[in-house]
Write a structure and sequence with these properties.
Structural class: mainly beta
Order of helices and strands: HEEEEEEEEEEEE
Shape: elongated
CATH topology of the largest domain: SH3 type barrels
CATH class of the largest domain: Mainly Beta
Strand content: over 45%
Largest sheet: 6 strands, antiparallel
Distance between the termini: 43 Å
Helix content: 10-25%
Number of domains: 2
Number of helices: 1
């Protein structure tokens, strides 16, 4: 019975993913013990089963869960971030292919990471600073300013 419910959920998920293929989503896996795993996805995942495992894979991420311990999983549609508060005294906004920072403390570390954790760009700045995103491909990235992380989406 549980396998039929899981199959139906996957089928519905496939239909929903086809409708929202252009949107970025977050995979949310809720385990029976109450723990949650969240992963930002920029492409449609491949969901398979092997033995008692639930496997979810994209070209950049592979996750494996004991399906007997999974309570449910879902995808949450999330759009891009337009402007965000980076810390108490500095902000940045995304304007086209630029991140524009204001009020950075001298020696502030600005880093951009891919969703797989790879460092894509890094700079040390202060005051007003502009960082170009033109060499990054479409996708979801994490901007870290002095230890405060924020998700951004680049669409091409």
């Amino acid at each position: 019975m549980k396998q039929r419910i899981l199959f139906l959920a996957l089928l519905l998920l496939g239909v929903a993913m086809a409708v929202q293929a252009q949107e970025f989503t977050t995979l949310v896996v809720l385990m029976k013990d109450g723990s949650t795993t969240k992963v930002q996805l920029s492409e449609e995942p491949k969901v398979t089963f092997s033995g008692s495992n639930l496997n979810i894979a994209t070209t950049s991420t592979t996750l494996q869960f004991d399906r007997t311990k999974v309570q449910r999983f879902s995808y949450v549609n999330e759009g891009g971030v337009k402007g965000v508060k980076a810390d108490a005294k500095s902000t940045f906004t995304k304007k086209g292919d630029l991140l524009i920072f204001q009020g950075l403390k001298s020696g502030s570390k600005v880093s951009i990471y891919g969703i797989d954790g790879r460092l894509m760009k890094e700079a040390t700045a202060g005051g007003s600073y502009e960082m170009s995103l033109s060499e990054l491909s479409a996708g979801v990235y994490i901007v870290n300013v002095n230890g405060t992380a924020t998700k951004i989406t680049i669409r091409r």
